[in-house]
Amino acid sequence: MDFCNDHTYFEQKLEVKKKEIKNEMKIKRYAKQILMALAEIHVAGIIHADLKLPNILLHRPGDGQEPIVKLCDFGIAQIITPSYFNGERKALMRERSGTAYYIAPEVKHANVVVGPEIDIWAFGIVLYEMCVAYKPN
Known about the structure:
It is a single chain. This protein is an alpha+beta fold and about 140 residues long. It contains three helices and six strands. It has a two-stranded antiparallel sheet. It has a two-stranded antiparallel sheet with strand order 2-3. α2 runs antiparallel to α3.
């Protein structure tokens, strides 16, 4: 397990205090790190399937170093199995899962074929929240 000394930063700032991140450079840095983490897991054949603010942690190493964003809670992650879907990078989501507001439109019911794009949808919601401190309607 990794230690994150400011693990509730996003959840507290955006969901509890309802304060957007006003510094555009911070948003860019956080967004880039989240996208890099998603790229890493997608290349490894994993779809997070529950990306949301509480599952995005922040570690502030100190000594003038930039904060580090980390993803957590892979409890409902899906494993990509290209051989079952004609070589496409997809997974069969047997149960409808995820968190309201962050669930991609294609995840309407159980036994649906999903791909890494469902994480990108959730990332868009997270990015929106970072900018305005509320979820889109």
